[in-house]
Amino acid sequence: MTVQINRRITQGVLVGGVRIGAGNPVVVQSMTNTDTADVNASVEQIKALAQAGSELVRLTVNNEAAAGAIPEIRDRLARQGIAVPLIGDFHFNGHRLLRDHPACAEALAKYRINPGNVGSGEKRDSQFASMIETACRFDKPVRIGVNWGSLDKGLVARLMDENTRAEKPLDSVEMVHKVMMVSALESARRAEEVGLPADRIVLSCKMSGVQDLIAVYRTLAAKCDYALHLGLTEAGMGSKGVVASSAALAVLLQEGIGDTIRISLTPEPGGARTQEVIVAQQLLQSMGIRAFTPVVVACPGCGRTTSTYFQQLAKDVQNHLRNMMPEWRKAHPGVEAMSVAVMGCVVNGPGESKQANIGISLPGTGESPSAPVYVDGEKVATLKGDDISGQFMALVDDYVRDHY
Question: pTM score, two decimals?
C-alpha cells in the first residue's frame, strides 16, 4: 500500500522517457562501475541494473574512448530491448568531450556536470557555458551536481572572504553548507542565462554526513523549485552504507523533498552492483512511497525456532518473487503490492499470516510438524512433508495468477 506524502512542488524534467519532479513518482537511479570504453562489460552491467529496476543509469565519460563508446552502448541496449535512459558523468574535460563527440552528446539522455570540476577562473565560465550550450543544442537536461569533496575553489575563497567581514560569521560547518547551496543555485542561474530552461535542470548537493545532507537539502528545497536528486555520497560498504543512506534519505523523503534517488554503496568484493538498486527500492517501498516487489514479512527467530528451515524458506521465497517480477510486472499489474508472510512458530505466525495476502506459519520447536497456509485471512491448506517450500511457492504462483 502506498501512502500520500505532501511532496514539494518542483519543475518537471523529462529524461529520455522518464519524468522526474512535478509530482511524478520518485525515480530510482544507479551508476555503472565498468570501464565505459569496455562496451561489452558496460552493456551487461547496464542491462542488469535496468532489469533490477534502475530507471536511469549513469556512466563515467572521462576520455575519448569512453565518449566514443556511448553511441554503441546505447544501440546495443536498444537491440536487446533495454530502453533505460543513459546519463553521462563529466568532470574536468566534459566541455571538450561533448564538443568533439556529438554522437555521444546526442546518445545520452542527460548530462551530469560538477561545477567544482569544470575549470577555474575565466576557463570555468566558458567551459561551463560550452557544456550548457551543447545541452541546449541537443535538447538534453542537466544535473548540476555539487559534491563537498570537489567544491569550486574560487567560490570557496570568495565566500570565505565575505564571511570573515561579516558581523556574525558562520562557523566552518555552516560555511560548507552555504558554499554547497550557493554553488548549485548560482550554477543553475548561469545555465538559465546561457539558455537552458528551468525544466531541464536537476540539482544535487551530495555530502557524506547524514545531518549535513539533511540540513543542506532542507534549505535548498526552500530556496528553489528545481527538481532535486538525493544521495549520500561515499555512503560506504555493507550495512553502514545502507543504514547511513536510509537514515538521511528517509528524513528528506518523508518531508516531501527529493524527486530521484541513488544509494551510493561501495560494493562488497565480488558483490553485485544491483544491490544499490534493490536498497533504493526497499527504502521507497518500506516508507510506502512506491511498490516494486511483493513484500516478504518474516520473523527474526527466537528460542522457539531452533530450526533454520523458516529462514531458508523466507530467503527462497524472496528470491523467487524478485526473479519472477520481470515476467509478473508485464502479465500481472499490481502484483508488486502483494505481501507474503513466512513465520517460524505459533506465537505470531498465524496472526501475521492472516494479515498478509498469503502466508505460512511453520512449526516451532516441539510444535506439530505441519504448516498452515492462509490466503487473505482464511486458512486454505496445511502443508507437511519434505517439500513444504515447493508446495508453498506453487501456492504463491497460483495466488498471483488468480488475483492479478
Answer: 0.95
